[in-house]
Specification:
Subcellular location: Mitochondrion inner membrane
Pfam families: DUF543
Helix content: over 70%
Family: Belongs to the MICOS complex subunit Mic10 family.
Mean pLDDT: 81
Largest sheet: none
Shape: flat
Organism: Hibiscus trionum
InterPro entries: Mic10
Strand content: under 5%
Radius of gyration: 23 Å
Distance between the termini: 73 Å
Order of helices and strands: HH
Low-confidence stretches: none
Structural class: mainly alpha
Length: 97
């Protein structure tokens, strides 16, 4: 019974560590991407609307990249897909008319 308690305690610690890493990653990417969007908007655009749009785009890029990395941290899908194997592809059929 003591072993089961230790395993569950280590699982909780592991999940807490994953959440901490994910929240830290999300906040950093959101802030840095928003700042990069603000800087780019200040340099390239004159209208306040387009400047805010570049900030929003930067924030979206930051949240999207953080979501991708967090899902791989929690054991979801891998963001890096393997190239398809040529052996698995079906052979093309010759069409004779």
């Amino acid at each position: 019974m003591e072993e089961n308690k230790e395993l569950t305690a280590s699982n909780y610690d592991d999940i807490n560590a994953k959440w901490d890493a994910c929240i830290d990653l999300s906040l950093r990417r959101f802030v840095y991407s928003s700042l990069a969007g603000a800087f780019g908007g200040f340099i390239f655009f004159r209208s306040p609307v387009t400047r805010w749009a570049s900030v929003a785009f930067g924030a979206g890029v930051g949240i999207g990249s953080a979501y991708t990395d967090c899902s791989s941290i929690f054991g979801g899908y891998s963001p890096k897909l393997a190239p398809p194997k040529l052996d698995d592809a079906p052979a093309p059929k010759d069409q004779e008319e």
